[in-house]
């Protein structure tokens, strides 16, 4: 049945592409001067020498998405393993890598959390404030240092908004309500942008309710050729985490608070300079047995819900649950770089420093005393771990009209792991005016998180002797640019060793973090992007198709893998935007996903392979004057599916709302 569906969908896609190609003119391309700022030497998108893609502001507006997580999933080419709806918790995977192996940045400032990659997408962002998202696939440590193991994502916020206001509300099934506000205003020479958003729901099944408040502020000041950016953020979320991290104990609950601040500077003409100073603090309260009314309440030394006592049965007896896990992570760092032109092209050289620290009652090494939190009631810390890292990098870019080559080196130092070098090069060549080929070879490393090193739980055993992961990545491809059509095809091969994963030998044993000896991953993909010349009554506004295939030469024979081997083997995604009537339009996203690996179903007491998933989402919008009215349906086919084995995702979820936009900018 699944094969028949797949054949019909592929046939339809083929017919659409053929029809689109018939109307695509093959004359010389008028270049869109879109600059990719994520790379060390910013370059026009069309001339980039490796796999880079951009999610534009227009796409974000038209996607049937409610959060950054949804945008990244529906854009295609990424593996978003969501545990909850509306951005509550998700793991981002690139090119077959795990959620710990992708570096997340906001305006070029790294925001990964050293406790665990589960927190990397806990950011204080409103979709309305995002200008674009740049996605760099493949090992990228030579540009960004460690942790850009399988790639990097840079989320770029809007700038120069002038005086304007955007306000929206949304409501829907399962008690869903959300509201958002984005305001741009000038105070003298300082341009300001403030964003506030709130969302809550009763949950689509028991213990999936949530609340989330995000607040952010950006300020921009231009002094001559120097541009300063100040950014501040706060995010507070609390959610029922039904079976999020282990299916043995479904009544989990988590509360997270994130505060961040950063200052960036960029400028210069002949000698260009860039720098930033950043700080981020995350509080994490994790309850394996949810506390509160109708849940578990403490009675003496026990947590009790009705006649049930929270605890763990072992062959030697019953051990009562001792209470929540508390974590506080701090990340502070600074980066500086300069770039200049010469007869050899453009040179960029820089240095960065980062300090990471965790206070916890579970992770880290024992302290001599106990610290109590003033932010999280009842939280205490008796363990601690800190580490520092230093990166020095050099990148050289040489370009001619139809040829470019970029090469560089990152030198990383950490007292525990020593020195690691991440070299690499990228080269591209325009075979014809419209046909580009490229080749990229890079090395990267990734440090184990504090969870990898120290987490001990009822179902987990840590390994403090873990080594950093290493990888060599090879990729190549072609891109063909027409007036309205862009075609891309790529191949990649990743040689990874000392790969970190949580594994167990049998379903009844505990998960243990280990360095797998080696894991090689082959990838292939293609995409077709059709954007017609703008016409007033054009039906098709945008059509994009992406397909990616992955295969690893390491199977989970003899053990069960929690993360590393559960990659998307087949991933087909389609984005289609079209008009219906004046002011009325619709955006559709459709995906077919087949995940490698399996998970243990505790109800059936057996391992179960992931099934093929068909997901269809739509958003219908009507724009009139300053207002946009919309109705959105996610999982329109009402599929029962899982991104992560123990967590059943929601069926069809319908929401609707209104957005008001007022601009006072002088034209």
Secondary structure topology:
Elements: H1 2-22, E1 35-36, E2 43-44, E3 52-56, H2 57-62, H3 68-74, E4 79-82, E5 90-93, E6 102-106, E7 109-110, E8 130-137, H4 141-144, E9 151-157, E10 164-172, E11 176-187, E12 190-201, E13 210-223, E14 226-240, E15 253-267, E16 271-287, E17 297-299, E18 302-305, E19 308-309, E20 311-314, E21 317-320, E22 325-342, E23 345-360, E24 365-372, E25 380-400, E26 403-414, E27 418-430, E28 435-446, H5 450-454, E29 460-461, E30 469-481, E31 485-504, E32 511-530, E33 540-552, E34 560-561, E35 568-581, E36 584-595, E37 598-601, E38 606-609, E39 613-624, E40 627-634, E41 653-663
Parallel strand pairs: 6-9, 29-32
Antiparallel strand pairs: 1-2, 3-8, 4-5, 6-7, 8-9, 10-11, 10-41, 11-12, 12-13, 13-14, 14-15, 15-16, 16-22, 17-18, 18-19, 20-21, 22-23, 23-25, 24-25, 25-26, 26-27, 27-28, 28-30, 30-31, 31-32, 31-34, 32-33, 33-35, 35-36, 36-39, 37-38, 39-40, 40-41
């Amino acid at each position: 049945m699944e094969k028949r569906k797949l054949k019909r969908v592929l046939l339809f896609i083929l017919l659409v592409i053929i029809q689109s190609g018939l109307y695509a003119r093959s004359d010389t391309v008028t270049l869109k001067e879109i600059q990719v700022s994520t790379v060390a030497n910013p370059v026009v998108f069309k001339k980039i020498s490796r796999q880079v893609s951009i999610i534009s502001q227009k796409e974000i507006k038209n996607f049937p998405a409610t959060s950054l997580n949804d945008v990244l999933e529906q854009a295609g080419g990424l593996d978003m393993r969501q545990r909850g709806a509306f951005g509550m918790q998700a793991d981002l995977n690139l090119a077959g890598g795990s959620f710990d192996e992708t570096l997340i940045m906001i305006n070029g400032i790294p925001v990964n959390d050293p406790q665990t990659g589960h927190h990397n997408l806990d950011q204080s962002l409103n979709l309305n404030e995002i200008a674009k998202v740049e996605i760099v696939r493949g090992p990228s440590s030579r540009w960004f240092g460690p942790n850009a193991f399988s790639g990097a994502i840079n989320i770029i916020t809007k700038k120069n908004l002038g005086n304007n206001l955007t306000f929206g509300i949304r409501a829907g099934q399962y008690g869903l309500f959300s509201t958002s506000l984005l305001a741009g205003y000038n105070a003298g020479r300082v341009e300001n942008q403030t964003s506030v958003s709130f969302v809550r729901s009763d949950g689509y099944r028991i213990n999936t309710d949530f609340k989330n408040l995000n607040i952010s502020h950006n300020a921009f000041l231009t002094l001559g050729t120097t541009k300063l950016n100040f950014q501040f953020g706060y995010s507070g979320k609390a959610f029922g985490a039904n079976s999020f991290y282990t299916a043995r104990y479904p009544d989990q609950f988590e509360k997270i608070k994130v505060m961040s601040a950063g200052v960036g500077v960029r400028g210069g003409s002949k000698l260009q300079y860039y720098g930033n100073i950043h700080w981020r603090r995350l509080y994490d309260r994790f309850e394996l047995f949810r506390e509160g009314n109708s849940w578990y309440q403490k009675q003496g030394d026990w947590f009790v819900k009705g006649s049930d006592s929270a605890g763990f049965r072992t062959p030697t007896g019953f051990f009562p649950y001792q209470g929540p896990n508390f974590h506080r992570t701090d990340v502070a760092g600074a980066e500086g770089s300069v770039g200049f032109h010469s007869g050899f092209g453009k040179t960029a050289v820089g240095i960065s420093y980062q300090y990471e620290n965790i206070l916890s009652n579970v992770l880290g090494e024992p302290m001599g005393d106990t610290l109590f939190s003033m932010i999280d009631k009842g939280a205490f810390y008796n363990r601690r771990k800190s580490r520092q890292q230093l990166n020095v990098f050099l990148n050289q870019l040489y370009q001619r009209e139809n040829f470019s080559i970029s090469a560089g080196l990152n030198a990383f130092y950490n007292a525990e792991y020593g020195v690691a070098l991440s070299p690499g090069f990228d080269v591209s060549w325009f075979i014809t005016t419209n046909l580009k080929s490229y080749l990229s070879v890079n090395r990267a490393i990734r440090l184990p998180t504090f969870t990898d090193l120290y987490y001990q739980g009822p179902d987990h055993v840590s390994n403090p002797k873990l080594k950093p992961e290493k990888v060599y990545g090879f990729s190549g491809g072609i891109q063909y640019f027409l007036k309205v059509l862009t075609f891309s095809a790529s191949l990649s091969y990743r040689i990874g060793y000392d790969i970190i994963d949580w594994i167990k030998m049998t379903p009844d044993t505990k998960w243990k973090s280990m360095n797998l000896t080696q894991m090689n991953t082959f990838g292939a993909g293609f995409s077709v992007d059709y954007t017609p010349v703008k016409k007033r009554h054009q039906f098709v506004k945008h059509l994009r198709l992406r397909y990616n295939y992955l295969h690893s030469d390491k199977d989970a024979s003899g053990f069960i893998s929690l993360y590393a081997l559960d990659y998307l083997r087949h991933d087909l995604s389609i984005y289609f935007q079209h008009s219906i009537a004046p002011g009325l339009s619709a955006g559709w996203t459709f995906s077919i996903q087949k995940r490698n690996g399996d998970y243990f179903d505790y109800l059936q007491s057996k391992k179960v392979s992931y099934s093929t998933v068909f997901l269809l989402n739509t958003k219908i919008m009507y724009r009139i004057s300053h207002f946009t009215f919309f109705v959105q349906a996610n999982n329109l086919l009402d599929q029962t599916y899982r991104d992560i084995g123990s967590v059943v995702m929601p069926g069809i979820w319908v929401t609707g709302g209104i957005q008001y936009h007022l601009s006072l900018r002088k034209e």
